[in-house]
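Provenance and format

Records in this collection were gathered into a single text stream. Each protein contributes a sequence line and a token line. The two records reproduced below are adjacent in the stream.
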Amino acid sequence: MWSFELNLKNLTNGALALGLGMALSTVTAGAASVTFDFTAEKMKRAKMLDFTQGDIGLTVSAIKTNPKDVTSSSKVLTKNFGLGVKSGKKDNSAKIDSKGAEETVVFNFDTDVTIESITFTKFIKRDDFGFSTSGLDALTGDVVETYTFTDDYTSNRFDVSAIDSFLKKKDKFKHSSFAIANITVRSADAVPAVVPLPAGGMLLLGALGALGFARRRKRA
């Protein structure tokens, strides 16, 4: 009798743990990420460009800051390789660069989002970028094909700038230039979706009830 109760107890506890694990793994789903792809756009150039992905709206603009730290507006443009800046009549690079003036692309979302990654194009080794959130400097980094953020930056505004990079061997700065192919974000206020427990989970819960009943009956 004691052996039967012990085995039944172990079986019940194991089934309970399994059932709880299944329930916890199926009741919620994470907030989905969305990617704004700027390479799919036709050639556009304007003070502001609007984009939409899912329920998230985005307005992109551009500014430039000269060596005297004077900031003025520029035109943002899209080509088949991504986002760039047109900061003047003589600016024909169609990229975001730091030559003459530090060019910045400003991302304004219609809701708070958490940025996950930026995909760059048209860059070379040792190009650098600056990143700010809500107008405040957050980090600088090396331009790579896909820059993935390891910290959570949540805001409705992010700025990405081309900044001069320092070459230690030559003891001087070099200009940076690049384009932005896409950015990936997720909504900051997204509520995880509730996922119904699968049929197998319901059968398991029923089996747990039967085991509990059998245990109580045996003791009686």
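Adjacent record:
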Amino acid sequence: MSQASGLEYFLQLMFTYSNALFLGAIFDESAKKDEEVFRMAVSDLNQNDEILQTEKITISVTFVDGNNPFQAVQEGKALLDFLFQFYQS
């Protein structure tokens, strides 16, 4: 398997809970620049009251081995499990 691009194993999950948005991203280990762009975009959104009037985005970023797609699936499942457990309590 060839080295994956930074966005190939990108997984985005968004949940809304009490004026808070949680956004999780899973990037290939080689995608440090993509992660930086992701963080900057979220920061810009959080600072723009015209887009997010009362909500704020909280993020979680995880890096995985681009040659191991199963790891990305495991990380995505762990994130979903955490979110479902958190929002049910």
